[in-house]
Amino acid sequence: MSENEKKMLFKNNVHYLLIENSSFCNRKCWFCSNRSVDIKEETQYLSEELFLKILSELKTINYSEDLAFALCNEPLSDRRLPKLIETAKIYLPNVKIHLNTNGDYLNKNLLDDLLASGLDRMLISVYIDEKKPYWSYEKAKLAVIAMANKLSLNMEILSEENQTICQSIGRYMKNSHSLYIVMHSDNHTATTNDRGGMIPDYTPVNRRGNERRKICVAPFTQFVIYHGGEACACHNLRPDYPGHKDFIGGSVGTSSIFDIFAGPVYKKFREDMLRLDPPACCSNCPEDIDIAPHYRLIEQA
What's the confidence (pLDDT) of residue 114? Predict the structure, then answer.
């Protein structure tokens, strides 16, 4: 493919770009892939030089889809985050910027800084009883309300028929700026997966064996960049887990994001998925995987 064809492939297909800005998370959740890897004691950060390289490349195609700060860390532990968001908006004025957070670092002042920086949407995962797989809808609802009260937010509670997720939606406005917020508390015993085989003792409630009956959109529509610059074909795969080494498309520090997305690793992953014959790490992933389902709530609202 020519350089222009690679850029058009990326521009026409990638709708969700995830960036991990640091390696640190303040929580130790039983359902998280962090429990299966050796996390370095010293926090590692995505370098600003690498971040600017990514933005510069995205600027060449006028990228205007979703850019999320997420993955296996707590993004708000990095004090640079409001500045990173502001910089992304300068390079990519039409991009929609998301943030996934556990909310532990959030307060009204930081909320105002995030709003002023240009953040468009925020997903707050409200965790309860993280050390044991115990969850109830009533307890989750109280936790979501407590988080809303902490931030003085007016949130509408959205009830789920099967009551495996307590969700709320709201909007925070100041000086004509607005930030859409979704809070949710999931029953991870029922809704999570084994994170690409990284949580071997997890058995899904709705386990369906190794037969995949639907094509997963992840390797077709998302691009995942970890704090060291490694790009993976799915957000449930990570470069520091030995079993996922074959799914690292390359490093954005030495290759362009367009070369990686059009490269052999992503290409093979997509071809295998089209044949409904993905690698074993996909076998226990929900077949109806959707990119950022919680943000669909905002779009519908």
Answer: 96
